[in-house]
Amino acid sequence: METTKNVYTNGKLTVTYKPTVCINSEKCARELSQVFRTSVIPWINLEAANSKKIINQIKKCPSGALCYNFNRN
Fold first, then answer.
1. Which residue segments constitute the domains of the chain, with CATH numbers given?
2. pTM surpassing 0.90?
């Protein structure tokens, strides 16, 4: 069974979360909790940090469940 991908954007950046890939290490929530929140829906709030911090955190995702793309303006 495949689940729907979760897509979030802040206008400059689009973040995709793949729940079927996630290993639930919670690294994102521990290190950038204002963006990757475990007790609030939607759980990703891209307005809570600048794009550079978000990208740096996504690059640390051990499973590759978090991906990003820059939006074209």
1. 6-70 (3.30.70.20)
2. no
